[in-house]
Amino acid sequence: MIGSLLIANRGEIARRIIRTARRLGVRTIAVHSDVDAAMPFVREADQAACIGGAAARDSYLRQDRIIEVARATGAEAIHPGYGFLSENAEFAEAVQAAGLVWVGAPPAAIRAMGLKDAAKERMIAAGVPVTPGYLGKDQSTDCLRREADAIGYPVLIKAVAGGGGKGMRRVDDADDFADALASCRREATAAFGDDRVLLEKYILSPRHIEVQVFGDSRGEVVHLFERDCSLQRRHQKVIEEAPATGMDVATREAVCAAAVKAAQAVAYVGAGTIEFIADASAGLRADRIWFMEMNTRLQVEHPVTEAITGQDLVEWQLRVASGEPLPKRQEELTISGWAIEARLYAENPTSGFLPSTGPLERLRFPAGIRVDSGVEEGGEVTPFYDPMIAKLIVHAPSRTAAAHALAAAAGHVQVWPVRTNAVFLARTAAHPDFVSGRVDTGFIARHAKALVPAAEPSDAVLQAAAAAIVPSLDRDPWTCLAGFRANADPDREVAVEVAERPFRVALTAAAPAAERHGDVLFLGGEAWTFGPCRADHGAGAGAAGDGAILAPMPGRVLAVAVAEGDAVTKGQRLVVLEAMKMEQALLAPFDGTVAELRAQEGGQVSEGSLLVRIEGRA
Ligand code: ADP
């Protein structure tokens, strides 16, 4: 076993790796950017070194600097985690050339699976079923459009270098193809420096099924069963589980065997995931499950596999990288119970899931479940990296029990003032279709109305807020009702302010059990400021509906789709912004005319700056 390990990553995965390394007696070295200096992973490592500025290219992507630190600190090995340099073949080679152990996939396997088109060709050759589509070299718009027509709509345009749900566009209609292609290429160039795309038949009722594989340096490959990652928002995984619901033994054997074959075809060593897409319109069937891509790293969602198999995958990685054989043979691996993971993100579900950054004045997780988190109370969510706050992982004897446990866990998350998707996770886990296993990748979009919370506080929140202020009001709790409806029965109503807006609440006997921290109330995964009403409420400050389109966060203007004086219709695309590496289209809020246009293609904008102003049509 290696004696020391440098972790070329940050946040929760760095902590996760440190935990196992410590248990195995391996000394750990953290590297970090300057803004991460106070993060828990830096403190928890045996040693730490700052390697540069906040931007990933100035720190976590600086290959030479990382290897230098490894040398200087006497690290024997480097674990890349996921993201950053984890699937960078040159870095893997540089690590090995420096005489260090690379706790990752062999560079040749990374290369073979790195580009989606080449990987699919390789899998076809190995006899692994792949999604029907176009992988050709001709990248002209005309050719791609012809191929899309031939595949038949809907089609999916994918950046060949894509990953993380970026660089992907579903096209339902030939008329939209050119626009979607242009936008996909733009995103691909910005994110991956490669604008080539491939086309795939868009699978209807798709489920994302992936298989955890592991290889050792002796050529052994085993699988650790499947995960279902169908619960996605804009192609990004939100909830993952293991095993997959509705997977019968024969189908599981076929899919897992295909995954092992795929890994063997690239002489795989270490932890890897073979991702498949299943057409689940008639349940999971072996002949309707196709290879999508291989991820040559440890995945974010690996804990659900750990939960059902009782294995520590980071330990497996360290052992295999040290030259040891796989810790278990295939026949020794079994599935026990059901595990579900939810990704708690710093984002605001009521504003279209825009990332939310800032201090974590309050950060409390439910007890009794596994929580992998990179941050702590008193810390901060910065805009520089992935906005994931934590992974909530539940494990129970049955899927139903696991879903209930997750709903309860997400509902007890307390985060403030950063906004999170906790309420959205709680609602998803409690949704009858989720609980009964009717999941596919369209689930979230289909049920958005039920899952996305309203911007308004619910009755339950108002009740809880009212109940919470009653004891704090001075003897005569009802005085501040003066000026409210005259004929209301003042004995039963409380004037309360929630999210800085006044409400009059008729108190009922049983207010929901909310948790509170100062003037913030937590209920069902949501957080609201509350207090007794103030007298100085004006007509309401919100200027909603005035047609001013403001930048929701700092970013760059990628495209301006309108000109001053243009007539626009509600929902029409006005401006495309790139913020936190994602494209975001800003749409017309109502029918009208472009009265003012401030956004300029290529320009940087700060949060809240005016981009476009729409005037309603008379
Ligand atoms: P990335 O590498 O960016 O994660 P993937 O190729 O793994 O992209 O695809 C991400 C998700 O997009 C899948 O999990 C699935 O939900 C959806 N997807 C991918 N290919 C198809 C397809 N051909 N038809 C329908 N959905 C697809």
Question: Can you walk through the features of this model?
Answer:
The protein folds into six domains: 4-103, Rossmann fold (3-Layer(aba) Sandwich); 106-128 and 207-336, ATP-grasp fold, B domain (D-amino Acid Aminotransferase, Chain A, domain 1, 2-Layer Sandwich); 132-201, 2-Layer Sandwich (Dna Ligase, domain 1); 337-454, ATP-grasp fold, B domain (D-amino Acid Aminotransferase, Chain A, domain 1), CATH 3.30.470; 459-532, no CATH class; 548-616, Beta Barrel (OB fold (Dihydrolipoamide Acetyltransferase, E2P)), CATH 2.40.50. Helix content is 26%, strand content 31%. The chain is built from 17 helices and 35 strands. A hairpin with a 5-residue loop joins strand 16 and strand 17 (354-355). Helix 4 runs antiparallel to helix 5 and helix 12 (399-411) packs antiparallel against helix 13 (422-430). The longest helix has 17 residues, at 249-265. The radius of gyration is 26 Å and the shape is globular. 47% of the residues are buried. Residues 474-488 and 536-544 have low confidence and may be disordered. Adenosine-5'-diphosphate binds next to strand 7, strand 8, strand 9, strand 10 and strand 13.
